[in-house]
From TrEMBL:
Keywords: Signal. SUPFAM superfamilies: NTF2-like. It comes from Flavobacterium lacisediminis. InterPro entries: NTF2-like_dom_sf. Gene3D superfamilies: 3.10.450.50. Residues 1-18 form the signal peptide. This is Nuclear transport factor 2 family protein. It comes from the Bacteria.
Amino acid sequence: MKKLLIITTFLVSNLFFAQEKTPKAIVEDFFIAFHAKDTVALRELCHPEIVLRTVANTKEGNKLKDEKFDEFLNSIATIPANLKIFEKLIDYKVEIDGNLAHVWTPYEFYVNDKLSHIGANAFTLYNDNGKWQIIHLIDTRRKK
């Protein structure tokens, strides 16, 4: 009986830990929600105090722009149905140290199947008691 209890506990604990999503999976889920314009899912993946920034390449030079999370979600929610957006991720580079993770994703951004701009995303995540959350997102945007 004792052996059965130990084996059952082992199997259940492995099942539980196997379900924990990796930082890469969280970023993949972020883009699934982004493409679906699902602001509820985006909010679930991000910490309430997430910091959003963009390094924009302008005629005046590089500019660092901040965006409030609610404004970002509103901009996603108000994308017209006939406007197709798609961010094609070229690669993933993932680094993890304990409860801190960094995910780097170079990308190409398309609007109605036409290349709009390119750049890279840098996601910082932290593990809040078994649940990875995005706490910082900064990206670059430039014309090809």
